[in-house]
Specification:
Blueprint: E1 2-9, H1 17-23, E2 31-33, E3 38-44, E4 49-55, H2 58-61, H3 71-74, E5 84-89, E6 101-104, E7 115-118, E8 127-130, E9 157-164, H4 172-181, E10 183-187, E11 192-197, E12 205-207, E13 214-217
Length: 218
């Protein structure tokens, strides 16, 4: 499997997106997830995208269909849950979710589509999930192609390091994400996502803390 996108919890409207725009990232189209109670703003790269995600409708995010996802807890800034979620897509060698999962069928997805969400994932870890029909942004049909050019000069996410404040053993899904998709896991004092673009060819880094638990290596 390979990385498709990462979500990052933000307050409503994701005002922190302004920081990414100021850096020189180009914003793609937003989504409202009808029936799930969430909304997003998105930044696309050739091989994956970054999603700033928040609760738009508290009643919907707590409904019977959405409740098992634990998005209500994960997207609540008052909770200590991981602020991240990792979505993966198939490679030729992996056509289905390689970790134990359950099928989530939200109303905003077309008929016949589902999200395979990793089972028994602790809240201090990200939400791990798999979307069989997903494709890389650069391979999307032209009618649905998102902007991929950024004045910051980045093209693709080439490495991901995730810091999690825990002494617990990694879940099965976390271990598989590390082994199969190259997500580097480490323990630390706080949640942090490090994204390396284009193998760090620019030789610089941008730390967006405390506004976002995000470190960009360019």
């Amino acid at each position: 499997m390979q990385l498709d996108h990462i979500f990052l919890r933000t307050p409503a409207g994701a005002p922190e997106a302004a920081l990414l725009l100021e850096l020189g990232l180009t914003e793609g189209s937003p989504n409202q997830h009808a029936g799930q109670g969430t909304a997003n703003r998105r930044f696309f790269f050739h091989n994956a995208f970054l999603e700033l995600l928040w609760i738009a409708d508290p009643a919907e995010v707590a409904n019977a269909t959405t409740r098992p996802t634990q998005l209500a807890q994960r997207l609540d800034p008052a909770q200590s849950a991981s602020p991240f979620g990792f979505c993966f897509r198939p490679t030729e060698a992996t056509g289905t979710a390689p970790f134990p999962s359950w099928a989530y069928c939200p109303g905003y997805l077309p008929a016949g589509m589902q999200v395979d969400i990793a089972s028994d994932t602790p809240l201090h870890e990200p939400m791990w999930f798999f979307l069989t029909q997903a494709v890389a942004p650069a391979q999307a049909p032209l009618a649905r192609r998102q902007p991929l050019q950024h004045t910051l000069g980045v093209r693709a996410i080439t490495a991901v390091t995730l810091t999690i404040p825990t002494a617990c053993n990694w879940s099965s899904a976390a271990q598989i994400a590390s082994a199969s998709a190259g997500i580097t896991l480490q323990r630390g004092s706080s949640h942090l996502l490090e994204l390396c673009f284009d193998y760090g060819v620019q030789g610089r880094s941008i730390d967006l803390r405390p506004a976002l638990p995000l470190l960009l290596r360019l």
